């Protein structure tokens, strides 16, 4: 687990450094940054549709990878999900990454509320809906926020649970680079399709997810401890 933490931190520094060194200087570059890097900031479930239940929880490390101007970028997160009553789950994550040459860290957070329409059974899949919000601040460069809605289905096959989902989110980006004050804010509605598979071994969990948002591909991985009812 310690090796994974160190690896995610190293990749994260590379990710934000890539964005910092490619800071947009005009409207076209800023819009391209939002279309590629901005979509990575949207909320990712990285979990099957089945609810955790009142006694269940999921504590994990998560990373989402994509590309910007040909460079690989990774956003690391520490995430916690808790089962509630009546098929509800609440989840949230936090990230903070140092930027070389800048005294402040890039930081962000996200939150989601999920409702299980069907819990799933031996023959029927689980089906849920989710509302989410995220925010990311890269000091001196940009701020992004997303508000999203998605739905997914999953079916357990022993310790393996594949899932698929579709959703939409509104991405807003603000230029805070004072050297280029004429760059306008960005706002766009995005559609995403995603798929993944979750592996459970006792309380240990590994989940892998792929995502396509308006033609932009990204991938997420989550490793941690997951306990359901």
Would you kindly provide a brief summary of this structure?
This protein has two helices and ten strands. It has 229 residues and is mainly beta.
Uncertain segments are 1-18
CA-CA gap between termini:
25 Å
| CATH architecture grouping | Beta Barrel
| Count of domain modules | 1
Molecular shape: elongated
Amount of beta strand: over 45%
Which sheet architecture does the biggest sheet show?
10 strands, antiparallel, barrel
- Rounded radius of gyration (Å): 18 Å
DSSP E strands, number: 10
Mean pLDDT reading: 86
SSE order and pairing:
Elements: H1 2-21, H2 27-36, E1 57-68, E2 71-83, E3 88-98, E4 105-118, E5 126-138, E6 142-154, E7 160-175, E8 186-201, E9 204-213, E10 216-227
Antiparallel strand pairs: 1-2, 1-10, 2-3, 3-4, 4-5, 5-6, 6-7, 7-8, 8-9, 9-10
What does this structure look like?
It contains two helices and ten strands, in the order H-H-E-E-E-E-E-E-E-E-E-E. It has about 230 residues and is mainly beta. The chain has a single domain, classed as Porin, CATH 2.40.160.20. A ten-stranded antiparallel β-barrel has the order 1-2-3-4-5-6-7-8-9-10.
Keywords, please?
Porin, 229 residues, 10 strands, disordered N terminus, elongated
């Amino acid at each position: 687990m310690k090796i994974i933490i160190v690896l995610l931190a190293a990749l994260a520094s590379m990710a934000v450094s890539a964005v910092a060194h490619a800071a947009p200087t005009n409207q076209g570059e800023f819009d391209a940054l939002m279309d590629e890097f901005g979509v990575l900031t949207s909320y990712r479930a990285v979990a099957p549709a089945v609810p955790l239940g009142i006694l269940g929880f999921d504590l994990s490390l998560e990373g989402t990878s994509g590309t910007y101007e040909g460079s690989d970028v990774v956003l690391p997160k520490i995430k916690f999900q808790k089962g509630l009553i009546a098929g509800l789950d609440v989840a949230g994550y936090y990230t903070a990454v140092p930027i070389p040459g800048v005294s402040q860290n890039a930081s962000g957070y996200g939150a989601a509320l999920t409702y299980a329409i069907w819990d799933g059974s031996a023959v029927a899949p689980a089906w849920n809906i989710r509302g989410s919000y995220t925010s990311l601040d890269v000091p001196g460069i940009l701020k992004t926020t997303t508000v999203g809605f998605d739905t997914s289905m999953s079916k357990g096959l022993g310790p393996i649970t594949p899932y698929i989902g579709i959703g939409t989110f509104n991405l807003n980006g603000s230029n805070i680079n004072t050297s280029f004050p004429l760059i306008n804010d960005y706002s766009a509605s995005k559609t995403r399709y995603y798929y993944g598979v979750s592996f459970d071994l006792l309380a240990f969990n590994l989940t892998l997810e792929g995502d396509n948002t308006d033609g932009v591909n990204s991938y997420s991985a989550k490793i941690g401890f997951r306990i359901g009812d």
